[in-house]
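U., I forgot to send this yesterday:
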Amino acid sequence: MCGYSVIFVAKIGDHVLARWAVVRDIAAVAWAVIVLSCKPSTWRPPVRAQLGRQILFTGVEAVWVVVAIAVLAGVSVVVQTQLWLTRFGQTELLGAILVATIIRELGPLFVNFVVIGRSGTAISTELANMRVLREVELLDAQGVEPMIYLIVPRVLGMTISVLCLTVVFIIVSLISGYLFGFMLNIASRNPAAFLNAVFQSVTPSDIINLIAKTLIPGMTTGIICSLEGISIRGLITEVPQATTRGVVRSIIALLLISAIVSVFTYVR
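Result:
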């Protein structure tokens, strides 16, 4: 019996050490991206072009998807919040509830899911295919640093895009929710009063929470998907596996980061 206990504890220890190694690698790449992005020598024309393409695909082309989700969230969350608070005579809580649901949680969470589903899969697949076709080795042989050319612009492009898309989500969801509530004769006739109730409920902690829940998961997703794609051995059968691992690990990282940020931001 004692032998089985030792084996069980050993397996737990191996699992913890393996997960710690993954976290350590992600942190090391994140630090390298930050350091390299601060160096002017990094931003040569090809790297700037890669960054622009990544922002175009991850941010600009995803705007309409985020807008559609934001409208649905505005109708389902904002309208119902106004309806029930009006019925119970608690309209003074409108701003605090909308800040807690839309700005603190739903906005960053939904946008990160969209980015993981669209761009995370694309990055893992693209880099994995480059490994299969030996394009990464070719870049290295030509004196092009893969870290600078392949990873830095993708990670930064995803990070910037997540932040901008989250701001778009918040604005659209609040506006659409108010407009639908107005049409249903639920919302206040004065849009300034609605916006004032929301903005007065926003605290510095909410701003910190929003920035942390967009920049950190966005960068983490870019790093995880890049590492999963570029670390395969070069077999074509590994491409879908790398993509799946990138998505699953990005979602797990997103939920963990969101939970940790919420605890440190709001639990006193």
